[in-house]
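This protein record is not my work; I was only asked to verify it. Would you go through it and say whether the fold makes sense for this chain? Here is the record exactly as it was handed to me.
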Amino acid sequence: MSRKSSEKSDVFSLPLLPLTDSVVYPSRVITIHVSGAENLALLQSYDGIDETIAVGFCEPGTKDDIRPVYISNVAVTARIIDRIKMPGEGFRVTLQGLKRVELLEVDTERPFFNARFTDIEERTRDPFRVNVYVQKAINLYERLAGLNPNFTKEFTQLLKVNVDNPGRFADLLCATVDFEYAERHRIIQAVSVDQRLQRVLELLRGALDRVKVAQEVEKRAKGDIEESRREYYLRQQMKTIQKELGDEDLSRRDADDYEGKLEALELSEDIKSEAAREIDRLRHIQPSSSEYQVIKTYLDRFFSLPWGQYSDEKIDLASVRKMLDEGHFGLEQVKERILEFLAVRKLNPGHKGPILCFVGPPGVGKTSLGKSIAESIGRDFFRISVGGVRDEAEIRGHRRTYVGAMPGKILNGLARAGAMNPLLMLDEIDKIGSDQRGDPAAALLEVLDPEQNGTFTDHYFNIPFDLSKVLFIVTANYLHDIPKPLLDRLEVINIEGYTETEKFEISNRHLIPRVVEQHGLQKHTPKFSEPAIRDVIRYWTREAGVRNLRRCFEKICRKVARKQVESEAAKKRVRAIKIAPKEVQKFLGPKRYYHDDAIERDEVGVANGLAWTSAGGELLVIEALKIKGSGKLVITGKLGDVMKESVQAAFSFVRSRRVELGIEDGTISTHDVHIHFPAGAVPKDGPSAGVTVTLALASLLAGLKVRSDFAMTGEVTLRGKVLAVGGIKDKLLAAYRAGIKNIVLPKQNEKDLVDVPDEVKKKTKFHLLEHVDTLLDLALIGYDPKTDDNEPLPVPDHLDDVVVDASN
């Protein structure tokens, strides 16, 4: 095979011995093992000593099947110094490298390879750089010799002697250091001395890095071994001490104890096998190991679960009704629904009924209702607060791979309740959050679904647990904050705010006796008069529930307690104090609220609206004012987008009734109208103020006064139709507290009057509207709708005032 077409004058032929894993450098002696049919044939043909042959070098990765194309261009002529026949087929041959030659052509016709060669002239491109390379190579080798005993310092002297011949220096260095075949192959193929030395430097740097890493690893390993020996020695000492103290078999005793507990429980096979596996692991671990404590904690929590323990449920509807009445005044509809729920459970204990959800403002008794239900039917009660929970693991538990892992709130609550069928109350479910750690509300979907919670799996225990016997009750303040899929699994029971009379009864029956007992005033019990209690309700609280009312009584009792203690210290006679309205103001300070927030007299541009808040209903006075301008509409009061749009719609409707209202031409275009909603720091939104804004604007622009004994709520369209709104009961209670006698409601909200307390119905007149024109007839004093010809405008039948006697 010919490699070059051009002929050279100094061409010569030599037998070729190709090598696949060894390199022969010029001027160096090496002993190699020779095998293969072609190579053995060559040695048999040239069987003398001092025979000259050529050694070729195959490309890295070449196997035993050697072909001429695999042999590199640069070869080395060598002299056979010695040969020894080895057992089997093969020779051990000692060669001395002579010089580099260029391989031109390989002849494959003989039993062995024969090739034609030409001499190679070694070139040095930059002598100065070559000298620098030589010095760097010596420095690197000296550093290697200082770190690794395999690199002798004597060889350093040999290198320094050969610095005058850089090519031989590079070959000498490369032949001494144990490089991989691929690296040595690159060196032998480098004809340029500059390139050869540069490659040698790269290999020396790599060798130095490997030596450093090896020493670092060895140092660490030695330290680990010493630490292991130290730990072993300490463990042996500890074992001896434990043996002397009698604690040698602690892990075995713990495992036997857990096995006895497991055998006593009636569990399914998969749960038993999981627990048995952990017990077996505990048996084979040293008590001093950290893993021992992890497994022991898991087993302690496993056996703390109430496996097979049930409370005796006794549902007596008469007893339940009596207990609910004793603990809660009013709430008749709520109590009726609870009794219906329990009646079904009594007839069919296995019935998978709905999950009850108590929704209402703070302080109306949602949590205490759940506790009363549990006490009345004989179930254990446990409350789980899920408000502010943002991690799914709080519900499902943490996986045991984490440090400090623990079960979720559900199974932890069952363990603390001590029964498989307690009443678990999930409090403040509308305040659950979510973030990158998961959505707790999604985890509750399985917990609160009767069809799925029979095999609830906590991540910590990793075993199914039956929650189907648990009676879940959840509480919330706002329905719209509960995720829709979760709300779909709940039966909502609304608990609205209390009337003044109901608060008075609650104070007399529950709050005052409880507060007096808590403050140790039973001996000289203060006497609260009815006017005093009603004043506290009217002027110091403004809420749907009774939480702040209780705080007011607590404040009064604290001051009474101080007086009694000071009198006893001064050895004065202690008498029971009678709390009258005058004493209330003395104890509680100035009035915080005023009973009548409505407009005090008939005025122009002012109307009483009704609003709903989280604390119940409120009276909202809306004011309108016109000033000289260009017809702009200004709206203030920290309003939301929906409320602003409602004001715009009301303004457009009033402008469309300019003729009927008797508004002079040019009045609207030459005046700016300002609508203000007082309590400007409180955010407001919603469309229910539409009728109130319409009335205030009509009064302002027509110059007619609004009746002060009217309050109203309802959404208004551009055509003047009045649409239904929400929160009717709370709004009516707010109007009742303010002494409003006439309430204007949308006709579509007539159905909501069923839930209004009889006390409110008896003292209030309800006006139901389908169109806002009826409101103008009712509440605008002196309103006489006119046409363009100043003729009275006929009022359609559907605009007639509808008055409902809701007391019946």
